[in-house]
Amino acid sequence: MFKLYNTLTRKKESFIPLRQAQGKLQKKKVNLFVCGPTVYDFPHIGHARTYIVFDAFVKCLRQKGVKVFYLQNITDIDDKIIARAKEKKTTPKKLALLFEKEYLKDMKNLKIDSVTKYARATNNIKEIISQVERLINKGYGYKIKDGIYYDISKFKNYGKLARRTAQQAEDGVSRIDKAKEKRNKGDFCLWKLSKKGEPKWESPFGDGRPGWHIEDTAITEKYFGQQYDIHGGARDLIFPHHEAEIAQMEAISGKKPMVKYWIHTGFLTVKKTKMAKSLGNFITIRDFLKKHSARTLRLFILKAHYRSPVNYNEKLISQTKKELERIDEFIDKLNKVKNKKEKEEKSLILKTQKDFEKAMENDFNTPKAVAIIFELINKGNSLIDKNLLSQTNARDILKLLKKIDKVFNFIFQSKKKEKIPLKILELIRERRQCRQEEKWKVADKIRKKIERSGYKIKDTKDGPIIKKNL
Ligand SMILES: [Zn+2]
């Protein structure tokens, strides 16, 4: 049984899918929505953290037989997109399409392939307008000069997710709309009337574009209905964004809660400050992958708990690479075990699997799960060194690691066999020659040369192993 920390109740709760709780059929069907990107620039590794966490989370649930519909929105119309398009002398539509493509490319490179559906805001304008209309009809929406706004004083439970009151709402941290004629300072925009030259869609309340919060609820109502299982995102979205979503959807439907479990990921920080576009302290996924592998980022992210802050620096990335090397060496060794003697190490394998599952079911405790993998590596290595691991057991361990890697995607390297350049192969040959002739000093010089070229050489009893620096 999964246990999840729910931001709404501030408690770890047993995960019971909505359909199961309502006694419906297909009780293992779960709807999950995670806030997607605003496509005006390249995403950074702070964004990657949230998407890697939910990718592994969904894969883990699916491995348990839960049928997850994983939905993500794409904010492809927004003030930032309009402003950036102006700067770049292009149209907002072209800019959004370009960065949507780049976002999907980054996700693919990070092996994030669990999303069932990406839904663009601009493909759901009809649904958005319908929600704004219903909010006006119920007395929550009102019109002023520049758009339709939501009157937060009308919604009794405003602040229940972020644990704030309507009066505190005015100190909202992001994207609270500034119009002067608003009834309450914390009122947020549902529909923005277009100024000259801005993108616009026709609506009964005037030509304009959707506010930010309304696109999520319109999209989830369309695909999931008015109530669903899990909503995720980075923790800075709790207020005002997710609070606003609750206010919109629960006001329309009269049903609560809109979402049963709210899951929020912690920040990626640089020198204790949150990595953010606005602060300029970010590294794009693109730039990260120029220097390091996707599996480095996946391990780096998943060895921390998703709710804790993760501090980023190059030293910690090097440490992660060393951990990956230990994994690679272990897998190499397992593949070479030829011991036919039947040794009973079944208990080690079974225990590892059980402990791993227990860790994952306990609020997705990936740091514990990663530690369990390294415990297995330590024990396995010592058995192999003493020639105490049989080939059958080695294969069973490989099988278990493959199963775990369907969730983690950092244990096995991609299938592409690395091609070692001729120049390096030549140096290796020369070095072998020198070693045979006991010219140790020259051999050592050649080794250093190989390392300077970005390769690592390790001598084993079966000959040298060459690897590119990760
Ligand atoms: Zn969102």
Arithmetic mean of pLDDT: 93
State the major sheet: 5 strands, parallel
User: Could you name the ranges where pLDDT drops below 50 across 5 or more consecutive residues?
Assistant: none
Which structural class is indicated by helix and strand composition? alpha/beta
Share of helix, binned:
40-55%
Annotation, overall tally of beta strands: 16
- Number of helices, counting only DSSP H or I runs of 4 residues or more: 15
Heteromolecules bound:
zinc ion
Query: How far do the termini sit from each other?
Result: 37 Å
Radius of gyration: 26 Å
Describe this structure in words.
This protein is of the alpha/beta class and 470 residues long. Helices cover 45% and strands 16% of the residues. It has helices at residues 18-21, 45-63, 79-87, 92-109, 125-137, 212-224, 238-253, 285-291, 294-302, 314-336, 346-361, 366-385, 391-408, 422-436, 440-452; strands spanning 3-6, 11-14, 29-34, 67-74, 117-120, 141-144, 147-150, 188-193, 208-210, 228-234, 259-265, 268-270, 273-274, 310-311, 455-460, 463-468. It has a 5-stranded parallel beta sheet, with helices on both faces. Helix 5 crosses helix 6, helix 6 crosses helix 7 and helix 11 (346-361) runs antiparallel to helix 12 (366-385). The chain starts with a strand and ends with a strand. The model has no long low-confidence stretch (mean pLDDT 93). Residues 35, 216, 241 line the site of zinc ion. Zinc ion binds at residues 35, 216, 241.
